[in-house]
Amino acid sequence: MRAQDILLGLDAHHTPEAWTHRLQRDAGEIARRLPPELLELHGVVVGRARDAAAHALILSGSTARSRRTAISDLDYHLIGPQIFTRDLSSQLDLHTLTPTELDAHILAGDDFVQWSLRFGLVVFDDGHLRRAAALIANRRPWPDADRKRQHAARSVNLARRMVASGDEDAALEQTRTALSLAARARLLRAGVFPGARDELPQQLADLGLLAAGAALGSTIHDNAVPLADLALAVDLCDVLISTAYDAASIA
Amino acid sequence: MAPRSKALLAREHLDRALPAVAAEDHAEAVAWLFVSLEAAIVAVADAHGLDTGRSHWRKAEVAAELHATGVLPTDYADTLKLLNEARKAVFYEGEDPDLGGQSLKDIASTVESAVEQAEQVPAR
């Protein structure tokens, strides 16, 4: 997904009429894309968000993209007050922002909140999301690739030590995290908005980064990956991060 | 080289975490405490024939199940959730972790109790 394509999509959605159309479309997509076993959890989250007089709720992440895997959470962005969730399934990953924080995160180059606005499915909105979408369409803030690269570098450092620890499960998880972050940094630098985690391998391959894409795909889908392979995957993170500095001239 | 047992890995991860806990290095501490607790839960679950799968949420579910069935005296599910969210805040978002009002030392004590439980079960 090239930047211009995505921005055009938001351009088309931020008028009141188009936004209403998006809400109707998203309602249908939510019903289609939520797995049956998560419908009850979704209903509880929506009910509590409405009871708390939240401004808006977006179904985000892999579920919104129909790209769930065995390790997927159920992600939401909630605009409004915190709601009680400790009694709910650990699959739930709820990110709560105030309306002020929503705008600030967009303008500060946070890619996750932009991801939710671009690719997420709006459950309900009192107008704050529409204004946020208009903010992106008008100001066109591109997520901060340097910030993502710094996060990735920290994660790569930890992944290397997890691999050295000999714990295959922990090493697999941390290597996947590091590769995902490094991939997002690299894609953002190349002007490509990263998709859901399971879409990243193909997006990397489209940039010619086949080995990194394959390594990430393996950490997402394989139940076990030998530590030696994970060590190589961590090295590929370094390649992604180093080329994220000057990818604009490469891509 | 034979893979080390999950109980041993849990102890080694805890040993890596403790200096960070003492130094109030939240990022380092939550990262190693999290994998220590997960390894401890997997060790106990394996000994009781429970599949923990690949996802974090499944391990939290199993932790709750192990408590509900009387295998573990403590329900570690909330601590797993808290550490997972703290870890993601630090490494995904670059933010300070929300420890729910608990101190790192309190959380480390909870994790250590789980590691001790894991060390008492025979490895499969």
The mean pLDDT of chain A is 91
Number of structural domains of chain B: 1
**Largest interface: chains, residues each:** A-B, 29 and 30 residues
Contiguous uncertain segments of 5+ residues of chain B: none
**Oligomer category:** heterodimer
Number of strands of chain B: 0
Q: Helical residue percent of chain B?
A: 55-70%
Number of helices, where a helix is a run of at least 4 consecutive DSSP H or I residues of chain A: 13
Helix-strand topology string of chain A: HHHEHEEHHEHHHHHHH
Structural class of chain B: mainly alpha
The N- and C-terminal alpha carbons of chain A lie at a distance of 14 Å
Which key features would you list for this structure?
heterodimer, A: 251 residues, alpha+beta, Beta Polymerase, domain 2, Four Helix Bundle (Hemerythrin (Met), subunit A), 2 domains, 13 helices, 4 strands, globular, B: mainly alpha, 67% helix
Describe the 3D structure.
The complex is a heterodimer of chains A (251) and B (124). Chain A folds into two domains: 3-139, Beta Polymerase, domain 2 (2-Layer Sandwich); 145-245, Four Helix Bundle (Hemerythrin (Met), subunit A), CATH 1.20.120. Chain A has 13 helices and four strands. Chain A has helices at residues 3-11, 16-33, 39-51, 61-64, 99-107, 111-119, 128-139, 145-165, 168-189, 200-206, 210-221, 227-245, 247-250; strands at residues 56-60, 74-79, 92-97, 121-125. Chain A has a four-stranded mixed beta sheet, with helices on both faces. In chain A, helix 1 (3-11) crosses helix 7 (128-139), helix 8 (145-165) packs antiparallel against helix 12 (227-245) and helix 10 (200-206) packs antiparallel against helix 11. The model of chain A is unreliable at 247-251 (pLDDT under 50). Chain B is globular, with a radius of gyration of 14 Å. The model of chain B has no long low-confidence stretch (mean pLDDT 93). In chain B, 67% of the residues lie in helices and 0% in strands. Chain B is built from five helices and no strands. Chain B has one domain. Chain B has helices spanning 6-22, 26-47, 56-68, 77-91, 104-119.
